[in-house]
Design brief:
It contains no helices and nine strands. With about 110 residues, the protein is mostly beta strands. It has one domain: Immunoglobulin-like, CATH 2.60.40.10. Strands 1, 2, 5, 6 and 9 form a five-stranded mixed beta sheet that branches. It is globular and about 40 Å long.
Length: about 110
Amino acid sequence: MPTGEVTGKVTMAGQPLGEGTVVFFSKPGVPAATGPIGAGGEFRLETPVPAGDYKVAIQPLSGAAPTPESVGAKESPKVEIPPKYLSETTSELTASVKEGPNTVAFELK
């Protein structure tokens, strides 16, 4: 089965999304691949995916449990991802992956 490597960029209000995870779903509830979003909004799926059409969700980084040292510490600003993009059932984002390298862009509104 042909596979594709996916890289891209996630922006919100024209600005790069600074953190989070891109999740590609081939079937409802079954993530096919994920990729962390870097500081400039760029991401790369961690594994190649079979060629085909995908629903895409953008999820926040999962926070670690607070420790006594971290309570009261100044945290980096959290990125607020609009709720509709958190699940593949409500996200309007899609991607068509072809064999070989693929570059996609997602604009969150």
